[in-house]
Amino acid sequence: MDDKQIIELFWSRSENALNETRQKYNPYLKTIAMNVLGNNEDCEECLNDTYLAAWNQIPPDRPTSLSAYLGRIVRCISIDYFRKSRAQKRYSGGLATLFWTKLLRTRNYFNYSSYPADFRVFNPLYSTGVR
Q: Is the pTM here over 0.85, yes or no?
């Protein structure tokens, strides 16, 4: 089926648009997602999100090149999946609190003589004598 016909199916909100899109562009989109993610399960989830995004975006949009339009969507979604999977988990425990507590106890932050010389030179409060 031609791209213009598929876009018309999207505009008429026919579910056949998703079937025709999947039939025509699934290998192309899967290659893009697999090159970014390298994981088959994430790739399939990314493809499903791509078809959902195309379903939600095409009625206001009318792309001239459906392959480029879908390729951009799958690329952005797969990069988001990649970033989410590689992000470090934040530790919200007491280790950071313990670190800052010990640091504050060991250093007197109101005594400028304990700071390095660089800080004393560039700190406007120190150079004016306000302590």
A: no
Query: Which residues constitute the domain of residue 104?
Result: 95-128
Dist CA 87 CA 90 (whole Å): 9
Residues 80 and 24 in one domain: yes
Q: Are residues 110 and 58 in the same domain?
A: no
Give the integer Cα–Cα distance in Å for 19 and 75.
Answer: 20
CA neighbor of 1 nearest in space, from 18, 34, 24:
24
> What stretches of the chain adopt beta strand conformation (E)?
none
Of 89, 95, 126, the residue nearest 111 (C-alpha): 126
Instruction: Mark whether 46 and 68 lie in a shared domain.
Output: yes
112 CB neighbour count, 10 Å cutoff: 14
Q: How many domains does the chain have?
A: 2
Q: Are residues 49 and 7 in the same domain?
A: yes
Q: Over the stretch 19-51, which tens digit does the pLDDT of each residue have?
A: 999 999 999 999 999 999 888 888 999 999 999
Sign of the C-alpha dihedral computed for residues 35, 49, 4 and 63 taken in this order: negative
